[in-house]
Structures are given as structure tokens and as C-alpha cells.
Please model this.
Amino acid sequence: MQATVTAQHSAVSAEDDRALAAVFSAYTVSATCWLLFATAVGLLLAFKFGAPDFWAAKYLTFGRLRPIHTNDTFYGWASIGLVGLAYYVAARSSGTKLYSIKLAWIGLALFNLAAVAGTIALELGYNWGDLEYREWPWPIRLVFLAALLVTGWNLIGTVARRTTEDIYLSNWYTVCGVLWTCVIAIVATLPWYQHGLGQVAISGFYMHNAVGMWFTPLALGVFYYAIPKILSRPIYSYALGVFAFWTNLLFYPLLGGHHFLFSPLPWWLQTTAIVFSVAMLVPVWGGSANYLLTMRGRYRDMTHSYPLMFIFVAVIGYLFGSTQGTVEAFRSMQAIWHLTNFTVGHSHLTMYGFVTFAVWGGIYALLPLATHKSPGRLGIALHFWMALVGSFIYVIALSIGGTIQGLDWLHQRPFIQSVTDMAPYWVWRGAGGLLMFLSHIVFAWNVWRMTSGQTGNAGSPILARTEGAAA
Amino acid sequence: MKKLLQIAGGALLVYIVIVMGIAVIPAIDLSKTPPGPGVKPLTALQAEGSAVYAANGCAYCHTQQVRPLAEDKVFGRPSAPGDFAYQTPELLGSERTGPDLSTIGSSKPSDVWQYIHLFDPRAVVPESVMPNFKFLFHVVTTVPPGETAVPVPAAFAPKQGEVIPTRQAKALVAYLLSLKQTPMPGYAMNGGMGGMTSAAPAAAPAPTAAASGGYSYDAAKGQSLFMANCSACHQATGEGIPGAFPPLKGNAAVDADNPTLHIHTVLQGAHGVTIGGVAYSSVMPPFADQLSDADIANIVNYERSSWGNHAKPATAADVAAVRAKGP
Ligand code: HEM
Ligand code: HEM
Model:
């Protein structure tokens, strides 16, 4: 029999439960702090496009704050948030306690140490060549690697102790995601093959493997656990999930070259990347279909369950964002969209509309189960709608603006016209960004209520099985 | 345990094999790419400038890769593998909020322009959204010996004192001016997409006769080319920047009936000329390699008929004749 998300956890004492809840809470609180900080910086960056002389001093200059925004959303917010969820999911779906509570705390300390040190280093101008998402000086990236190793060890230890026969699918994604990311971190750091164009090849590899083999599998792991849990029904097809896992592994690592289309990288590397960008439709559509079919017939229930709404948006974000990525990867489309703000729109549709919403959905669904404290319904609703509308405005504005920018270039207008044409879209991005940021403040309040506050008034995130629906 | 080992171990192994094949092995190979003809390593000062460039995140807004697409022609010839042999860390970039800088050392060879622009981009390009880098400059009351003050236009200069570049600014500008492409005969539009944009400038209006004095040239094209190539120094108003870039409005070479000097300057650039009694120390770049005879005719005619100038128009044939005479 396949393991289900409702595995027994008889082997777990109340004290183990409290320790797990404390770990989960601490990771969530820590991630939330990074989200607030990193997106406050993001909002400031957005503002600077309209007011380039605003706070242009050395430590506040655009080029130092931008990598702080990206690295801290990546490694502070999304990574820490996803690892906290992964621990909870691993322990619960394996019907056991965490392998080591202590290692979990050490990991949290290392993740935070890396993010704090990385932020300071970038502020001081220690930026490794503006190589996106790996700008931190290498010793700091080694601290991050240490955090990953600790996490991997702990997750494996937990799953190895499972009381079920099968390994639940979520754990495939999270355990392997951590292991793959250790490889990514090592490959990105070793210097011997990173000279000139060789480093360009690694940059391309790194950019999409960091998102595709780290955030994506961890977020998908959350889906596989949280959706069945909320709906009290098993995942539509376990086999499809396994199939998506292996195809994701075979196709995703090969598409990094699409970041450097039309560059002097070998043509075969670029073409391979395009081919596998198309092949990615298989795991993306297969995976998304699996989630949506699990929710089939229960869409009306979403109105009762904001956690499910968050996850629904995240699934759609995954589906649309990735499909958009495939379209974007064709040479004919790249000729227009490459190097424009359209890419920034794609980055946020995926990292925000998919990953960030997945983390939120996971936290709202699972943290109340761990701590027995819920946020208010109004709080979740406010967070949801502000984040959704805000990111919608953000992505639409940059998609339209980026297309206009690309067409200006295509028509060989003076460069500066592409700058002036973007101005209104940058304003809209700022307006969307403001809503997004405000929603994060509400989220922080909700997290406080789920961890330290009184029991709130939101209903249980878990929906009862409705008659006949789960047959 | 066995099952866990199979899944995690198997997936890890598969991943390592793929990563070797798609990233590490190609990177080993590409790291050995020999430098192209004439490509030289950076000097110590330029390398310091490259570090200033990375530390302040210039690469988040500027690329250094010219694609084999018609739209990228303004930035130079398509980048070749050998161009990057000495570029570690690589600074190709992934976003063009600002223009590509692969050939900025040729297109804006004037250190004065670079300093003014870094001090306040809006002093030379009013629509710019590039941040100012005033923190790379000192403001002093008296210019120390051996230093030269940056001639920042009055509206953008500090109320008191003179602006001089710090060592970091000097290194950065030395680096920017080193960014040039070495000629590579026959290396032009080679990508499959080269032809894709051929239909693009269809929107250009038919040649219009400017109101003043029977000019017959493509006025819209002339203005657009002027904005793209010249206005950063000579300004959209044609008034230049006092002490740094000469005005073209009422300029003797531009407003003369014989267009030879005007055309010659645009083709071959200029350096150290005294214009209207002012000696200019900064450099005017040559455009012979980038602009066709017809384009140059459009630009000079735009200048000859704008801002109150009324000189006789030039033709593409005039440009060809001056070009044939050489520098
Ligand atoms: C209040 C919310 C946010 C705002 C206002 C915001 C704003 C920005 C801005 C202004 C940029 C620079 C774009 C440019 O250089 O043209 C940026 C880049 C980026 N941000 Fe955000 N951001 C927000 C949230 C997030 C979150 C939560 C994530 C990830 C989880 C994220 C990931 C990124 C990434 C990956 C880039 C680089 C994009 C690229 O190079 O294509 N952002 N953001
Ligand atoms: C099948 C799936 C996907 C494909 C084919 C794809 C394709 C692409 C392409 C072609 C680019 C380069 C755009 C350019 O430079 O012009 C890009 C950039 C990016 N993608 Fe994706 N994408 C996919 C899924 C995702 C997912 C799921 C995420 C996030 C978890 C993501 C995050 C990003 C980010 C952050 C960038 C910006 C990189 C940078 O330039 O800094 N993508 N994607």
C-alpha cells in the first residue's frame, strides 16, 4: 500500500510533538523576518526606478541592494521557510519524530548566519562578480552548504526511521532537492573550470538549477503533502507524481543554457537548453494536472479554506510560470524578451506566484496543526487578496512593459526610448509591490498569532471529507 | 533503508552525471578558450575598476554581450568566444536596463563624459534612470596639484567647491574605457536570426522636406540617429556642455556652407580642437565604422538645420567623398 498523508504517528510522544512544533515555528518566524527585510529592500529598489537619486549613497546604491533583495528572498525567506516545512512534512508523513532536534536548530543557525553574513558582505561591496544568486563570497556559501548538509542528514535520518513501508512522495522531493542542491553549491563554488566563458556556462547552469532543483522540488513536496491533508483525500495519482519526479530530474538540469541564448556559448549548449525547456512541459503539466485533479470537485470548498486558496494560486503560478518559461525560451521569443523586464516578471510569477504562495499555503495549512494556534480569518483573507492583487499588477505591468522594451530594441529606436517607455510600467510595478509588501506585514502578524498568540477565530485548515467526493 | 538509498542515491547519481555532462565538462573546455586576436588582459588599474564595477552592481543593469541580432548592431559586432578569455568573473549580465557596454570605450571614449555621467547621469542624459555615483567623487575647495576638476554643468554641480574623482572612480573609468572590441574581419551577423528584423524600420516616415530652406532628407531618421549617437555629449538642445562638449548650435563647422569639416569630424572624430575660442580636452569618437554614408548625411543635415542653424545640406555622396579621402 502506498503511504498516505494520514500515517499513524503512534511512535511519537507529546514531547516530540512540541519539539517539532518549536522547530517548525522557529524556521517560520525566521523566514518571515527575512521576507519582511528582503521585500522592504525590493520595494525600495522598485521606487528607485522612478527616483534614481533617492538614497543613492554608497551603502544604499541600487547595485548593492539588488543582490541583497534576491539573495535574501532566496536563501533567507524561501529556503528557510521551505526547510521548516520539509521537517514537519518528513516527520508527520513518516509517522515518526525528527531524527535530531539539535541538528535542526544547528541548521537554522547556519542558514541565518549565512544570510546575515552575506547581506553584510554585499553591503560592503564584496560581491562575487555580480554572478546572479551566487554573489556571496565563497566562505559564506560554504556556510550555506553546511546548513544544507545538516538538513539533508537530518531529513534522511527522519525518513529512515519511518513507521510506514513506503516513502511518501513529498520526501522524495525534499530529500533529493536538498542533495541536489549540495551538488549545485559545490559546482558553483569550485574555481578550476570557471574562467571566462567557462564561468558563463556555470552561471547559466546555476541560475535555473537553483530555482529548478532547489525551490521547485521543495515547494512541490509541500503540495504533495498539504493538498491531500487539507482535502482529506489522497493525491489523484501517486504514479504520476513519481513520473513527474524522474522527468523533472532528467530535464530540468539541462535547460540552464537558455539564460545565455545568442551569447557566444556553444550553439549546441543553447539548443539543448531550448529542447529541454520544451520537454519540461511534461513534468510541469503532469504535476499540475495531478494537483488540480486532486482538488477536482472541491473547488467550492476553497471559500472555506484560505490555505487551499494559497496553494491553488501556487499551483497555477507553477503551471503558468513554467509554461511561460517554455515559450520564453524559443529563439524567436528570446529575440524580443531576453534582457528585458519581461524576465523580471517571469522571476516574480515563479518565485512569488509559485514558490512564495506555496510556502504561505503550507504554513497556513500545517503550522496551526503543529502549534494548535490559528490566525484570524480576516488576517488570512487580507494577506491573500493583497498579495494576489499586488503580484498580479506586478507581473502584468512588467510583461507588457518588457514586451514594449523589446519591441523598441527590435525597431532599433534610440536606446533611451526603451527607458522612457518603461516609466509607467515601473510605476505600476511599484504600486503592485507596495500591496505585496503590505500583505507581508499582515502575514507576519498572522505568523505571530500562529506561534505566540492566542487561539484565533479561523476554522481548522483541514476540510472534512465530503460525502462521496473521496471515493 | 534500502528503498531510501535507492531513491536518494539513484537520483543523486543521475544528477551528478547530468551536471558533469551539461555544466562541468563543457566549462572545463570553455575555460581554455584562447583569447581572440588583439584581446589583452586588464592592467592593474583596469582590474581594480572591474572590481568597483562588480561591487556596485553595474552588471545588474548593463550587459557585456552583443548578440548576432540586427537590433544589437548599435553595440558592436557580435561577441566572440575569444573576447572573454580574460574576463573572470564574467560580466555578461542578464538585463539591459541600460545599454550594453561591450564597446563603451569606443563609443564614449571621453573620460570627461564618463566622469560627468557617473557623478550625475541626468547632467548629460536627462531621461536616465541610472543612479548617481557621487560617492565615487570628492568635493574640494581647491583642486590639489595633479588633479583635474570634473566640469559638471552648473545646474548639477555642488553649490560650492570642485568635483574631483576618487581613485575608485579613476579605476572604474579606466576599466570602462578599456571596453572595446578588437576587429574581427568577416565576423558579423552570423546567427540564424540575423535576417529576422530586416522588416523592422518599416515605420520610418518617408523623407520629409524640413520647413527651412528646401532640405530634403529623412528628418525623423536624422533626429533619431542624433539622439542615439550624439546627444549624450552635444545634448538634445545642441548646446553641448560648457568646457566639456562643444555646442553644435551656431557652431562654425556645422553652420558653414562647406560640409567637409563637419563630415570629417563625424567620420574620424576629433581631439584637442579649439572651437569658438574654447580648447576642448575631451575626445570626440569616430563614427566611420558604425554609420553608413546615408546615416551620416541624415545626422549632419539634422544638425545643419536645427537649433537655428541654416547651412547648406550635404548628401550621402559628399560623405562618401570625404570618407574616401581617409583620416
Ligand atoms: C514586495 C515584494 C517585492 C518587490 C517590490 C520586488 C521588487 C524587485 C525589484 C525592483 C527587482 C529588480 C528588478 C530589476 O533589476 O529590474 C527585483 C528582482 C528580483 N526579485 Fe523581487 N520583489 C519582491 C518580492 C520578491 C520575492 C518574494 C522574491 C523571491 C522569492 C523575489 C525575487 C526576485 C528575483 C529572483 C529578482 C531578479 C530578477 C531577474 O534578474 O530576472 N522578489 N525584485
Ligand atoms: C519549465 C519551466 C521553466 C522554463 C522553461 C523557464 C525558462 C526561463 C528562461 C528562458 C529564462 C531566461 C529569460 C531571459 O533571460 O530572457 C528564465 C529566467 C528565470 N526563471 Fe524560469 N523557467 C521555468 C520555470 C521557472 C521556475 C519554476 C522558477 C522558479 C522557481 C523560475 C525562475 C526563474 C528566474 C528567477 C529567472 C531569472 C534569472 C535571471 O536572469 O536572473 N523559472 N526562465
In short: The first helix of chain B runs from residue 2 to 31.
